[in-house]
Amino acid sequence: MEYTVIIPAAGSGKRMNAGKNKQFIMLGDKPVIIHTLSVFEQDPHCNEIILVINEMEREYFKELLCSFKIQKVKQLIPGGAERQDSVYNGLMKVEGANSLVLVHDGARPFITIEKIQELVKKASETSAAILAVPVKDTIKKVNNGLVEETVERSSLWAVQTPQAFHVQLLRQAYEHAFQTNFLGTDEASLVERLHKPIAVVSGDYENIKLTTPEDIVYGESILNNQQK
Ligand code: CTP
Ligand code: MG
């Protein structure tokens, strides 16, 4: 099934502390955002990429798209203060009332076409699906430096992007979130508030989000492994 993907890339990457938007950090021979975009560029089921950017970086994004021959980005949409605002701006540009829409962080360059296909297949059956991996660490609730409790691990999953939804469901979830002043860190948390079922598809542990400087070191080793 065909889909449109919204890629939020309008953050400033504060936790990465790189002095620039982390999307522009080089991984091997390409900036992070180009690794991410290339996967969707190569996926024949992806119709269009809606890239959400910081307006101040528009010219640089345009240059990158041109030099790396990314052709599925038809629109560069200005982002907002929070990730949720950025995705919302992108969502307003999705055409067609029956399409499937994916949202994928620009800072997750190791997504594979195989996982996208598994996710899309599931979302076409259920209207909502996300990628996630079982949590490996023991997780505890801590309050004022003291352990409150150990959370039962067997039901904990770390969620990733892409997350895939029927476009009308996602629009409804975003409208509801804004009306109720809810700010979430992923799309599923908005859809959950409509009490709609969301299917979970097993992801790859390597589909990390580049967030802090250690992630770049790990990212380079993932890239080297993929190229072997
Ligand atoms: N993002 C966005 N608009 C925002 C904030 C984030 O489009 N206002 C994007 C980021 O560019 C990133 C993705 O959402 O691709 C996930 O967000 P995160 O990892 O938090 O990135 P940043 O917000 O850039 O990083 P930080 O929170 O460390 O500042
Ligand atoms: Mg952020």
Automatic annotation (TrEMBL):
Keywords: Isoprene biosynthesis, Nucleotidyltransferase, Transferase
Listed CDD domains: CDP-ME_synthetase (cd02516)
EC id: 2.7.7.60
InterPro entries: IspD (IPR001228), IspD/TarI (IPR034683), IspD/TarI_cytidylyltransf_bact (IPR050088), ISPD_synthase_CS (IPR018294), Nucleotide-diphossugar_trans (IPR029044)
GO molecular function annotation: 2-C-methyl-D-erythritol 4-phosphate cytidylyltransferase activity
Keyword match Nucleotidyltransferase: yes
A Pfam short name: IspD
Family matches, as PROSITE patterns: ISPD (PS01295)
Catalyzed chemical reaction(s): 2-C-methyl-D-erythritol 4-phosphate + CTP + H(+) = 4-CDP-2-C-methyl-D-erythritol + diphosphate
Keyword Transferase: yes
Chain positions of site Positions MEP for the nucleophilic attack: 153, 209
Site feature (Transition state stabilizer) residues: 15, 22
Pathway: Isoprenoid biosynthesis; isopentenyl diphosphate biosynthesis via DXP pathway; isopentenyl diphosphate from 1-deoxy-D-xylulose 5-phosphate: step 2/6
Described purpose of this protein according to its UniProt entry: Catalyzes the formation of 4-diphosphocytidyl-2-C-methyl-D-erythritol from CTP and 2-C-methyl-D-erythritol 4-phosphate (MEP).
Family from the record: Belongs to the IspD/TarI cytidylyltransferase family. IspD subfamily.
Classification via HAMAP family: IspD (MF_00108)
Name by which UniProt lists this protein: 2-C-methyl-D-erythritol 4-phosphate cytidylyltransferase
Organism: Bacillus suaedaesalsae
